[in-house]
Each structure stands twice: as structure tokens, then as C-alpha cells.
Design brief:
The chain is α+β, with helices and mostly antiparallel strands. The protein is built from 3 helices and 7 strands. The chain has 2 domains: 43 residues, no CATH class; 102 residues, HIT-like (HIT family, subunit A), CATH 3.30.428.10.
Length: 164
């Protein structure tokens, strides 16, 4: 007997409870990867918009988040779809036209440095200073899904190379 459960828009088939966790995780990740591409395409269509993003709403505390670090320029919070035991997003509080790294200008030099330093602080707070990765997805080809520059701080397990 095959039963289907739907959670967060993802359909997973469980054959009489015999499907292993690894198989379910693989199916979920495959589905999520395909959805991420679709979300990235939709987001890219509005990439140059100055409309508030999901991150602007998190900064304004209109949407709850699990904040790891905050100062006057930067906010760091846990990713809702973690790809590692530690997966924190680090964002500038003021977008200032910095929707993606490819749009960076000389005037953004200070905030770019602050973002990297904040990533180091996050790694320290999370206990992963000895091994972590900082990732920036830039544009559609990299599956950027929110056009508000952000760094992914990943760690807490052995990371593979090359990634993705």
C-alpha cells in the first residue's frame, strides 16, 4: 500500500513505512532543488525592483526569525531550509541597491567587509570557527532566490569539495 503525505508542498511516498530515511531525504532534496530553480527564476524576474523583500520584513521584525547576531549594519539569522547543521544568513540591514554581489559598487566596500566580519562572528558564536564555508549566490545561474545580498554561513559537518 502506498500512502502519500504532503508537507510544505513536497510530496513524499512511503511504501508501507519501509522507505528509509535516506531515500526520503533524497526525494525531498531532489524536489527542493527543482523548486529552488523555479523560485530563483521567479525572483530573477523582479531582481531590479526596489520593492521590500522577505529580508526587509525580517529586518523590520514583521516576520519572525531566529537571530544569531545583530549590530547597527548587519543581521544574521538561521536559514529556514538549512543545508548543514549550522546554516545562517548574514544580510545588510540597508540594501542600498545591493541586491546581489554583481551589483556592488565602490560605495558598498564598507558593508561588504562588515558582512564578512559578521560571518566570522557567527562562526565563532556557533562553534564552527575551525571549519565553515561562506557562500554568496549571485543571480539566476546560482539560484539566488532573494534579491537582497546575503551570505550563507555553513558548517557543523564535513563539507564536500567541489560544492553543488
Amino acid at each position: 500500500m502506498i500512502s502519500t503525505s504532503v508537507r510544505a508542498g513536497v510530496c513524499i511516498r512511503n511504501m508501507a513505512g519501509l522507505a528509509s530515511f535516506s531515500l526520503l531525504r533524497f526525494l525531498f532534496q531532489t524536489r527542493v532543488a527543482n523548486n529552488e530553480e523555479a523560485v530563483a527564476k521567479a525572483a530573477a524576474a523582479n531582481a531590479d525592483s526596489e520593492a521590500p523583500t522577505l529580508f526587509d520584513k525580517i529586518i523590520a521584525k514583521e516576520i519572525p526569525s531566529s537571530i544569531v547576531y545583530e549590530d547597527e549594519s548587519v543581521l544574521a539569522f538561521r536559514d529556514i531550509n538549512p543545508q548543514a547543521p549550522v546554516h545562517v544568513l548574514v544580510i545588510p540591514k540597508f540594501r542600498d541597491g545591493l541586491s546581489q554581489l554583481g551589483k556592488a559598487e565602490e560605495r558598498h566596500e564598507k558593508i561588504l567587509g562588515q558582512l564578512l566580519y559578521a560571518a566570522k562572528i557567527v562562526a565563532e558564536k556557533e562553534g564552527i570557527l575551525e571549519g565553515f564555508r561562506v557562500v554568496i549566490n549571485n543571480g539566476l545561474g546560482a539560484c539566488q532566490s532573494v534579491y537582497h545580498l546575503h551570505l550563507h554561513v555553513l558548517g557543523g559537518r564535513q563539507l564536500k569539495w567541489p560544492p553543488g
